[in-house]
Amino acid sequence: MSAEGAVETALRALRHRDLSAAELERRLAGRGFAEDERVAALATLRRTGLVDDRRFAESRAAALADRGAGDALIRHDLEEAGVDSELVSDAVGLLDLEPERARRIVERRGPDARTARYLASKGFSEETVLAVVAPGANGELG
């Protein structure tokens, strides 16, 4: 095996979707590449702009938000992908505010307990769920 082989393997993985550096590192390790080969391959991919954790975090956060995810789910997903916590915060900060995203879902689904459970399951905070589903009920769901 070699660093060039690691780059080729990483490029094949990147053909399907953008990946974080940590995800690529795990894939290369799983394929049996030595640490020095993985480090060299990732350095090459970063230098050429093919691996960029900021870009990955921003695009992944936007995609998840478009699919109805709340901030907690987005943060968890990015952290699982090995993205630095500062980049995670920056990426979430670029999104529409969580209550705005939740309101759009409530407009489609209706303001009931079922929608509240749905929002909670999608990683919206309890505060957001109560604010958008039961704003006139003193924060109580019936």
Taking Cα atoms only, what radius of gyration do you get, to the nearest Å? 19 Å
Strand-pairing-aware structural class: mainly alpha
Range of strand content: under 5%
Low-confidence stretches: none
CATH architecture assignment of the largest domain: Orthogonal Bundle
Short recap of the structure:
The chain has 142 residues and is mainly alpha-helical.
Walk me through what this model shows:
The longest helix is centred in the first third of the chain and has 14 residues, at 3-16. By secondary structure, the chain is mainly alpha-helical. The chain is built from nine helices and no strands. The protein folds into three domains: 3-51, Arc Repressor Mutant, subunit A; 54-93, Arc Repressor Mutant, subunit A, CATH 1.10.10; 98-133. It starts with a helix and ends in a 9-residue tail after the last helix.
Main traits of this protein?
single chain; 142 residues; mainly alpha; Arc Repressor Mutant, subunit A; 3 domains; 9 helices; elongated
Question: Secondary-structure map with pairings?
Answer:
Layout: H1 3-16, H2 21-30, H3 35-47, H4 53-66, H5 71-80, H6 85-93, H7 98-109, H8 113-121, H9 126-133
